[in-house]
Write a structure and sequence with these properties.
Elements: H1 2-20, E1 23-28, E2 36-42, E3 51-54, E4 72-79, E5 87-91, E6 94-97, E7 103-111, E8 129-131, E9 135-138, E10 146-147, E11 155-160, E12 166-169, E13 174-177, E14 180-185, H2 188-192, E15 196-199, E16 203-208, E17 211-219, H3 226-243, E18 252-260, E19 270-273, E20 277-283, H4 287-302, H5 314-317, H6 330-347, H7 353-367, H8 376-381, H9 397-412, H10 419-429, H11 441-448, H12 451-462, H13 469-474, E21 478-489, E22 495-499, E23 504-509, H14 515-520, E24 527-531, E25 534-535, H15 541-551, E26 557-566, E27 569-578, E28 581-592, H16 598-608
Parallel strand pairs: 1-11, 17-18, 18-20
Antiparallel strand pairs: 1-2, 2-7, 3-6, 3-10, 4-7, 5-6, 8-9, 9-15, 11-14, 12-15, 13-14, 16-17, 19-20, 21-28, 22-23, 24-25, 24-26, 26-27
Length: about 600
Amino acid sequence: MKNILCVLAVIVALNINAQNDKYQFYLDLNKISNDLIQITLTTPEIKTDKIIYNIPKIVPGTYHIYDFGQYVMDFEALDKDGRSLSVNQLDKNRWEIENAKNMTKISYWVEDTWDANVDELVFEPGGTNIEKDENVVLNNHGFFGYFDGMKHNKYEINVTRPENFYGSTGLTTIKTTGNIDQFTTDNYMDLVDAPIMYNVPDTTSFVIGGAEILISVYSKNKSATALEIAEDIKEILELQKEYLGGTLPVDKYAFIIYLYAGASGSGGSGALEHSYSSFYYLPEMSAERLSGFIVRVAAHEFFHIVTPLNIHSKEIGDFDYINPKMSKHLWMYEGVTEYFAGHVQVYGGMQTPQEYLEVIESKLTGANYFKDDLSFTELSLGCLDEHENQYGNVYQKGALIGMCLDILLRDYSDGKVGVKDMMLMLSEEYGKYKSFDDDKLFDKIAKLSSSEIRTFFTNHVEGTTELPLKEVLNKVGITFKKDVTIKEITLGGISLSYNPETKRLFVADVSNINEFGKSLGYKTNDELISVNVVKIEVDKAQEQMDEFKKNTKPGDKVEVIVARKEKGKMKTKKLKGKAILVEKAKKYLIEFNDNATKEQLLIRNAWLGQK
């Protein structure tokens, strides 16, 4: 009997310790006041006299210092009898607590970031929103923190919500009792990696590649629904599933989409990736008009399930939210991911090979606005400070690095192994819970492929030698030229912009108008209605312009219908002219070589997924 009692005592003690090792947060979405919400924490056991509580200065994926602690106020630490403990705020993001061994509770209020009165607003997909009875965005790094040395403790988040609200998230560890949702994670990194959006639900879900896909949409004016947006996302996810070998490396993934009315507070819109979800902040418009953007951005964000979820360095795997250390490998985290997002569409037949060449040309043009003599590893290491203004190149030259690597790997393996296969090998080697050494990744990839790949990294990623685009593209029978003059049919050399009130494109600038444009008689602020009886639709405009150029020959009659303001009234005008070829300077020109060899075609077809 005595032994049984001893065992029971040990079990009880273990349960108490397990409970004490856990963070237990509480917040009530029914008790929001002036966009402020109170957070209370039942603290894990603290074993030191002093402890520092941290709210992140920066979080993974943003590559920008935001100081989320500046939105915290009325911070208080209490002992078991409710007595206040001495707290010293060290800076915007850290609070040092005295007599911490006696602490049992922390309480503070949080202001949302989306409409805060600060010099620089947080980019909304990484920020927080608090709208009572309407919408609450819990990007968890904006609400919950951690104690020094205790990021790896378990977290429990208890949310009391309005009865008609639903919390959309990529988390699967959810327990609901009445109107209280309890979310649990194994550590702080997993908590920060899992945004939650609360509102009256508009959701739909489906299964692809063994993964449950959740689509959740908030749109105050109901401009688009989850069901409508899901149709576009399904198509690209089916391609991505096949691209990744037929299954997806996650059990659940959430697309959390907030459609905003009016202007963006930060001046931007877009998305932020997470391992099991992505959060989108986009302007309200119809699902049809959102289609192209959603597909393009969703393709990129979803591919982050490969990296950094399953392939990441120690700097990412155990991220320092206060004194961040950057990894060398943005070429992979963002560059290869962006490459995949474009390449999957041609590989899966969603784009033609010719259309894909235009994607490559656009990346070449985009990269031209950044420094080409800056080592890409140096850019990565300095992306928060010294090289902050070069960060955008990860989506341009970074994608081109991914393309070059893909073709080189295909060339060395007779088409059998590409960069997506290499990433799969690395995923199997590392995975979510094993980080690689930042200085050893290039050698690891070379070991799995060839010494020539190591030389490529040495010269063109670690080094400052420009990418060998002519040589690499030649391996797949594509010619690469710089600074050429071409002749093409144009719409007149006008610059277009968008009028959100009329939902039309309009002539914003005629300073570069050519002879054809002059013959038509464009005027500034003319709004395009149709070209050769084809109604111009904003979301399909580029595709329609490309079709016009492709199908129009010199001398063909062209009729452009515009809406023009005359004497204060909008009137419809017919502009007529005959198409002419116009010389145009082009920085880059890449074309398929009609005389490509059998070997070049073998690698090209393997690269582009052609039969």
